[in-house]
Every structure is written in C-alpha cells, then in structure tokens.
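seq as requested:
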Amino acid sequence: MKPFKNKLAVTIIVLSVAFLGIIIFSVKNGSNSVSSGIGSVVSPLQKIVYKVNDKIKSSIDFFANFSKVKQENEDLKVKNSELENQMVEYSALKDENERLREVLKFKNSKSNYDYVGVNIIGYSGGTVSRGYIVDKGTNDGIEKDMIIINYQGLVGKVTQAESNYSVVETILNENMAVSVMVDSTRETTGILRGYKENKNEDFVKVYNLPIDSEIKEGDVILTSGLGMIYPKEIRIGEVVSVETDNVMVMKNAIVKPYVDFNKLEELFVVVPKDKINVKYD
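struct tokens:
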C-alpha cells in the first residue's frame, strides 16, 4: 500500500512540476496553443468573477450617483426658492415704485404742500369705514383736518391729532362730507358722503347735483377745492350709476372710489406749507 501512495505522490509532484514548466515555457516563448488551452479552463471563471465585480461596481456607482443627484436636486430646490423670493421682492419693489411715482406726480402738481408719510397701526372704531390710526401726530406737524392721500387718490382726513398718533376718517364714513366736482361737466355743487346700501362693496355717493346735470356712468369725480379743506382736483372715483331725485329736484351719483381701502399701504398727510393762512387751490 505504501509503495502505491508514494508512487501517487511522486506522480502528482511530477505532473505539477511539468505543468508549471509548461506554463513558464509558454510565457517565455509566447506559446499561443498552451495559453489558449489554459485560457479555455480559466476563462469561464474569469467571466463569472468579472460579472460579479461589474455588478458590484455598477451598484456602487448607482448609489454614488443617486446620492450626488439627490444632493444636486436639493441644491436646485434651494436655488429655486431663493429665485422665487427674489422675484417676490422684485415685484413688491416694482409695485412700490409705481405707487410712489403716482404720489410724486401729485406732489409736483401741488408744490405748496409738504407730504408726511404715515403707517397704519390700527383701526378707529374697529372697521375700515370708520377709519384708521396712523403712527404720526402733532410732533410731526400733523393737525386736525389735514387730508390723507395715497397713490390712487383721496383717502380721508385727520379728525384727531395727538402727540405721536392721529385718527384718520375715510371717505367711506357716512359722517364725512367732501365738496366734489364732476370732471366732464365741471359742476361743483356735489357733496360726497359714504354709502352703505351695498354691503359687499365700498361705495360713496354724490348728492346735490343739478337736476339737468349731464353726469353719466364712467365720469370721474374730483375734489372741488371748495370749503378750504381738500385741495382741488384730487382723484376720488368713477361714477357707476346715476339717480334722479324728483322730490328733491336733484341728481345723485353712486361712485366707486379709486382707493382700495382693504389694501392700503403708503399713506401721506398733505401739510400746507403756509399754515397761518391756509388756502387750498
């Protein structure tokens, strides 16, 4: 038995040495036949290892790329949000610029006044129609009966002035009375007051127009300057309907104000430069 085992061992050793010698010889001599023979055995194993490695590499690349794409997506979201905020800021600044430009036009046409900007800090009486509380008062040169405008037109007037705040009553208040003029006919007999019959809209009403007045829908209503409270030709609103009062022998007109009282922002108090002898033109 031992001789057989020894022969087997010797045979294996000899074959191994011979196989190794063939490989070395083929490498040195560039033997294609031997290498192809070995390749036919090794190649399937290489293919399996390659495929496994390729799948592992693909998986690693996928997760690496996924993480990168996810981060890029997050970065794009941040940039998009920043751009949206910039667009909102730009739009707000553009709107503010337009509003201030309209106020500047009025200021240039009324050079005998100063204009004090004020901010709304509360409501007077709890509703828009009653009026507002603004953040400046007598310490800033504000006095009772001075008028308030914005870029759209007439807002109202100061009814109470304290040291550091004032109360503003709007033209929507039924207690207000403003002498007005119909721009198309130049009639100056009209008196404007708040109008509350339509609960869903903010309207004012012009009373005391001549029975034969040619006022019509679409006409523009301005301040007349009579009464020495409101400067002349401040825009108020547009006529939406005309009524004939045969009992009082006059015409009345429903007017939609230009001012949006639910979206008031910049307000200005019109301060006469000559307070000793106040005379509105």
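Confidence is low (pLDDT under 50) at residues 30-35, 276-281.
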